[in-house]
Amino acid sequence: MKLTNLSFMKMNGVVKAVVCTSARAWRARLTLGGRDYPDAFNDAEPYDLHTHVFYIPEEDFADGEAVLGWRAFKNGRRTWEKRFFLRAEAFADAGALLSEYDHGLKIVSRESETVAEGLTFTKFTCADREGLPVILSLLQTDLKRTAIYVGTPGDGYANKRVKATIPDMAAAAERNGKTVLAAVNADFFDILGDGHPSGLCVKNGRVVANPDSKRPFLGVKKDGSPVITDLAESPGLLPELEHAAAGLQLLVKDGALFDWAPLEPFSFVRHPRTAAAVTKDGQALFLEADGRIPSHSNGATLVDLGLFLISLGADRAVNLDGGGSSAVYIKTENGFTLKTVPADLFFPNDMLIRKDFNSFFIVEK
Fold first, then answer.
1. Which of 2, 65, 86, 154 gives a 20 to 30 Å CA spacing to 226?
2. Pair 216, 270: CB distance under 8 Å
3. Out of 22-26, 66-70, 171-175, 282-286, least confident range
4. Whole-prediction pTM value?
């Protein structure tokens, strides 16, 4: 096991340390000055067992011997340690990282269609600074005319071991009387395990999963108003929620980039992405970026995604599950039509209709 990268950045009184390892490491910890710091990144999906994130109080961060410990499952359960000398003088510059992660997406063309009253779908053909294509798909809806509904397998309340494609979730909701106009994927979920979601899920006022999660979410209150927040910021909100599904980063706050996961490969690698946003005038935005097929679309960083949402008027935004899960559907005469090109990491040119844990529907009121 080798340390392939070690980066630090000062953030609001703490130092964010990102350690990358050559092999997959599980349940990592960093020991510095006799104190242990847990891996803050790999507590739930999406797992990146090569990347380990630690938050250290700035006053405790100094030169000295550090120990990275982890558990690996290759050849049985073993605990490993790596000792190294930490030098604290080299901090990453947030402004420089922002410039590096921003690919300067410019709109080349757009095609819009009205799906229903108050709901439009727009396909943006963009180019980055090098002229590479990026395809973005936007659902924009006026929540005075439509509503947001959380889709689940069978339109039910199971919290694990059940997954379904988004069209199958939509069909189940329609059997129960909902008119689904459009749909996108929602939360990260344990794709290799029992399928449970990573964050909060609320459906029809009932908590389906993870009521103690501190991950940010898009929610709809019982009065119909949308909210993007988390239960740390809004601890008394849970009983007021009618629907909610979580993401990973509060990407935009007060109309500006907020948590764009600096230093983490998850942030700066260009992936397929999905995000949800709300505007100050009560509209909801769902933005998807196709990726992993260079001739079609090259994906987006979290910064690319956040800046584009801000240009559309987003006041708050949450980053949702991405990668092979990113998908947008609209209702047509022929059923639910896939408007995007999902791409798996290992077989990107194979059409992928993934089974997910939950989704967001735009439905008739």
1. 154
2. no
3. 22-26
4. 0.95
Residue 319 and residue 305 in contact, taking contact as beta carbons nearer than 8 Å: yes
Tokens of 190: 């344990």
| Strand order across the 217-221 sheet | 206-209, 201-203, 241-246, 217-221, 226-229
9-18, 80-89, 283-292: range with lowest mean pLDDT: 80-89
Residue 54 in contact with residue 37, Cβ under 8 Å?
yes
Is 266:48 a contact under the CB 8 Å cutoff? yes
Give me the residues paired with residue 10 across strands: 15
Residue boundaries of the structural domains of the chain: 3-92, 99-364
Q: For residue 326, name the pLDDT band (cuts at 50, 70, 90).
A: very high
CA 224 to chain centre: 23
pLDDT at 74: 47
Number of C-beta neighbours around residue 309 at 10 A: 26
The answer to whether the beta carbons of residues 182 and 115 sit under 8 Å apart is yes
Phi and psi at 306, nearest 5°, equal: -65, -45
Distance CA 180, CA 309 (A): 24
CATH label, 3-92, candidates 3.30.420, 1.10.1760, 1.20.5, 2.60.40: 2.60.40
